[in-house]
Amino acid sequence: MATAREIMTPGAECIGSDDTVLQAALRMTDLGVGALPICGTDNRLKGMITDRDIVVNVLGHGRDPGQVTIGELAQGAAVTIGADDDAEEIMATMTEHKVRRLPVIDGDELVGIVAQADVARALSDPQVGDLLQALSTD
Hints:
Helices cover about 40% and strands about 20% of the residues. It has seven helices and seven strands, in the order αββαββααβαββαα.
């Protein structure tokens, strides 16, 4: 079975916890992505920010994205997957934590992001259906 390293998108770019939500939105637009890993000043992974986080937690509350920092939105520990974990483990982690994207870690280093679509390409059709159903229900 394929590992996270084999199916991930390598070279994930971090956004700093001191950067603004506006900076994150602009970087997402430039990169054509819907999520960015959050890295602290120590360059360690602190979490993820998604386009949905921006809409629901900033714009939806009338907050100015140019004044809100990424660190204000980071919640709890980041859910990650090891670079050598297989697609079944990725699917189980996504399902358990109800996330569509996982930062891929090799030791302490962020090496990429594995998204729901990456996993779907690596799994059989019935498994893909199970993953989509698990992530689409509340």
